[in-house]
C-alpha cells in the first residue's frame, strides 16, 4: 500500500500537521473570536429581552390594575349619580303629585269621594233592610234619604267645568243670544238712517 510506504510517510505526516495546524490557527484567531462575540451578543440580547419581557409584564400589570381601578371608580360614581338622580326624581314627582292633588285634581278628588260616600251610603241603606218592601220602609227614613240626595245634587261640585244645572245655562244662552240679536237689529237700524 502506498500510504504506508516508509519513504513517503514522513512527508505525508508533515503536510497533514502543517495544514491542520494552519487551519487551527486561522480558526483560533479569526473565526472563534467572531463566534464568541456573536454568542456573547446573543446572550446579552437574550438577557435584555428577558428583562424587557419581565418589565413589560410588570408594566402591563400596573396598567391593568390602574384600568380596573378607574373602571371600578367610574362604575361607583355612575351608580351614585343614578341613585342621586333617582332620589331627586322621586322627590320631584312627590312634590308635583302633591301640588296637582292640591290644585288641579281637588275637584275630581272631591267628586270621587262624594260618589264613593253616596254609593256606600246607599249600599248600607239597602243592606240594613234587605227584604223590606217599599211600602214597609219607614217614612222618616225614606224622606231623609230623599232630601239628602236632593240636597247633595244641588251642592255637587263643579267637576272640570261641567255644570249640573243645565236649565240655568240654557236660560243664560237665551239671554245672551237675545241681547246679541237686539244689538244687531239696532246696528242695522242705524245703518239705514245714515
Biggest sheet architecture? none
Order of helices and strands: HHHH
Tally the helices: 4
* Relative helix content: over 70%
General shape: rod-shaped
Give Rg in angstroms: 57 Å
As residue ranges, the low-confidence spans are 159-167
Assembly level: single chain
Beta-strand segment tally? 0
Average pLDDT confidence is: 77
Q: What structural class should be given to the helix and strand makeup? A: mainly alpha
* Straight-line N-to-C gap: 167 Å
How large a portion of the residues is in β-strands, by DSSP E?
Answer: under 5%
Descriptive keywords:
194 residues, mainly alpha, rod-shaped
Structure description:
With 194 residues, this protein is an all-alpha fold. It has a domain of 51 residues. The chain is 85% helix and 0% strand. It contains 4 helices and no strands. The longest helix has 97 residues.
Q: Helix and strand layout, with pairings?
A:
Blueprint: H1 6-102, H2 106-128, H3 139-154, H4 166-193
